[in-house]
Design goal:
Elements lengths: L4 H21 L6 H7 L5 H17 L6 H18 L1 H6 L5 H21 L3 H20 L1 H7 L8 H21 L3 H26 L4 H29 L7
Helix pairs in contact: 1-3, 1-11, 2-3, 3-4, 4-6, 6-7, 6-11, 7-8, 7-9, 8-9, 9-10, 10-11
């Protein structure tokens, strides 16, 4: 596996954190992945089993002898979770929320694919599509996004909501066009990390009993981990024989 240990560890921690909290709270009202299963014929038992497998995969990523197998396990787990989001889209194809939920899982799936198979067209398209959907989400929910920005950060929440929306859109363009893609992946990961630290960590600290804060914080961590995996895999591809100057 070409990705550096710190890259695999970062993605593994994100997967373990998301999965462990998912199992801890088991709240279908806020945990999108569990909801996808509990609202289907598969049931929450399958979701719990998959979360357990995800934890094993996250641990396995830092063990060189099994890292490739662990990445493949995570490809399967997050592939299943992505597929589980499709019924909600088919049931309400004009509603945006199911698409947003799908691409939250696709971000993790793309990270696992990049670690297992290397950075290529499937992961690149996945990451680019995720960045594009996240930009659209912030356009649709601009006021809600602005309200999350801490009041002490100048000049105001709306300015930062617009700026990050543009940043997601530019990142999507760069990744899909494969021009400065590694920089775009890294910048997106950095932006997600800052967002998680400034928004969800304080929310969790102030309201640790609110499952929604944990859910959104863990999802941000998971998406961040996916983009870090893409960044590391893209870097590894360049160092192992690619003549791509980007």
């Amino acid at each position: 596996m070409k990705a550096a240990l710190w890259v695999r560890a970062a993605f593994g921690v994100a997967v373990i954190g998301f999965s462990a909290l998912d199992l801890r709270w088991h709240d279908a009202a806020t945990w999108q992945s569990l909801y996808a299963f509990e609202s289907s014929a598969i049931g929450s038992g399958a979701a719990n089993a998959l979360m357990g497998l995800a934890i094993l995969g996250g641990v396995g990523l830092v063990i060189p002898r099994v890292a490739r197998h662990a990445a493949m396990l995570l490809v399967i787990v997050f592939g299943v979770f992505a597929i589980a989001c499709l019924p909600a889209i088919l049931a309400a194809p004009t509603h945006f929320d199911p698409y947003d939920g799908l691409f939250e899982q696709v971000a993790a799936l793309s990270g696992a694919v990049a670690l297992r198979f290397g950075y290529g067209a499937p992961s690149r398209i996945g990451f680019g599509a995720c960045a594009a959907v996240f930009a659209l989400a912030q356009v649709i929910y601009l006021a809600s996004t602005a309200a999350l920005v801490p009041a002490w950060i100048p000049p105001n929440g709306t300015t930062w909501a617009i700026a990050t929306t543009i940043a997601f859109a530019l990142a999507a363009t760069a990744i899909l066009a494969d021009r400065r893609a590694r920089a775009a992946l890294g910048f997106t990961a950095l932006m997600l990390g800052i967002f998680g630290a400034l928004v969800w960590v304080p929310h969790i600290a102030m309201r640790p009993d609110a499952h929604l804060n944990w859910s959104e914080g863990a999802l941000t961590l998971l998406i961040l981990g996916g983009f870090v995996a893409g960044y590391g895999a893209r870097r590894g591809t360049r160092r192992n024989g690619s003549s791509d100057p980007r």
